[in-house]
Amino acid sequence: MIVAVLLLSGCDDGKPENNQQGSDLIHLKQLAPLKQTNTAEQEKTFKVAVAAILSPRGTADSYQPFLNYLAQRLATPVQLVQRRTYREINDIVARNAVDMAFVCTGAFLDGLRKNQMRLLAVPQIQGKRTYNALIIVPATATTNTFEELRNHIFAFTDPLSNTGYLYPLSLLNKYGWTEKKFFRQTLFTYSHDHSIAAVSEGIADGASVDSLVYSYAVKRDPSLAKRTKIILRSPDFGMPPIVVSTKARKEEIKKIRTILLSMNDHKEGSAILKQLGIDRFVPPDYSLYPTGNPVSSDQ
Predict the structure, then answer these.
(1) What angle is formed at CA 234 by the lines to CA 232 and CA 237, rounded to 5 degrees?
(2) What pTM was computed for the model?
(3) pLDDT of residue 19
(4) What torsion do the CA atoms of 174, 177, 180, 186 make, to the nearest 10 degrees?
(5) 106, 135, 169, 288: which could form a disulfide with 232 (CB 3.0–4.6 Å)?
(6) CATH code for the domain defined by 130-237
(7) According to the model, what pLDDT value does residue 290 have?
């Protein structure tokens, strides 16, 4: 309200208070302090950050039932926090500005090396705790190997993305190539579904994408399977995890971890996990995430 008052006072034309419009003016000296209230807005809000693995709209639509479930179990308002890049998500996790975050594997490795985040839980999907990078091209392309993408347009996801950037870099490094010398042009899409769209719509000649997102996208739009083809699958990587800041309190970590690990034991929680394509959340397993250079670990 004070901001609005300052804006209104800035529109004052300088005429004295007894002019015709004077009775409509609001004067700061006439304002009284607001009474303290115990509204829901004043309660602590549990903040959940989700890295832009999907586009913002896709993320909000996909995660809302999960957020509602958390709010119910925590008896606390829950807020979705999104940022454009993985780096921005890492920054707010490092500052403990959010209570938990879904991050990419590459982003977690970066945060782990800097001692800024720790594992909260790991999703298990179709009985696995690992996933892959997929190199995809248009279905009509004659390209059948990564090497044949030389002098073509390639879509990366994010500079911290394990599957969307670090893995294709490892393929280039293997042969002593650089992205600028190998590809004719590169672009960052900042979400895996955007990278898939770039290939399916002919904007890019190839992309490296998250196998989980690709599978999810094809289920939602089967025509994508007819408009794209997979020419290479990476080795297994640890599943994109749920993390917290190293500054988070131990009792808070224990509380939210208990909720996540028991979701599949509750009817509503199990239904929500199914919507997300997740079997269940499992306890942290750091062996899935080598702490060395993620590029070398991808080879």
Answers:
(1) 160
(2) 0.73
(3) 40
(4) -40
(5) 135
(6) 3.40.190.10
(7) 76
